[in-house]
UniProtKB/TrEMBL annotation:
It catalyses: RX + glutathione = an S-substituted glutathione + a halide anion + H(+). Residues 88-216 form the GST C-terminal domain. The keyword Transferase applies. It comes from Salix babylonica (Babylon weeping willow). Residues 3-82 form the GST N-terminal domain. The lineage of its organism: Eukaryota, Viridiplantae, Streptophyta, Embryophyta, Tracheophyta. Keywords: Transferase. This is glutathione transferase.
Amino acid sequence: MADEVTLLDFWASPFGIRVRIALAEKGVKYEYSEQNLRNKSALLLQMNPVYKKIPTLIHNGRSVCESLIIVQYIDDAWKGNAPFLPSDPYQRAQTRFWADFIDKKVFDITKKIWTAKGEELEGAKKDFIECLKLLEGELGEKPYFGGENLGYVDVAFVPFYCWFYAYETCGNFSIEAECPKIIAWAKRCMKKESVSRSLEDPKKVYEFVLELRKRLGVD
């Protein structure tokens, strides 16, 4: 019996893009269901009753929630291509550490870049560059965080690349000038079809951010 896979998602979500990349890397066919986050569907509320958030993956009628957990699940459920997580326990722990770092630091800091002004904005920009420099240090001379192949940390972080234009435009700064190695890595990832087809147009993301700023009363 063929797998039935549905992804409940929202187009601009970097967390949802993680899952799209993971599914593409593993060659999994799935149904994409765009969700209205201001009027959540009965299916989303049924399948993710705890957090009521996207992305939510439904595999043969059973749901898996939270993007990094979903990516791990995809890695375990579809063994076909190169694994996202290394087999060595220490390396696995380190990989999870950096993915967790991205979850805990990057999203909250970058949200301030497009919602804050004045000193708070300048502080957010400084914190974001510090985060990127730490990630550059972890990347080292490897082509990907996963080594020779796209790995768990790459899948966790590269979706934010399509938001970089919005961060730079709202914050009036250049990420490439500060962290050229991160931009070179992102461009390398974009050469993979699984990534380039999953990431959204940066200009479209920026237009969406402008709408959010108006809604939040920032502009």
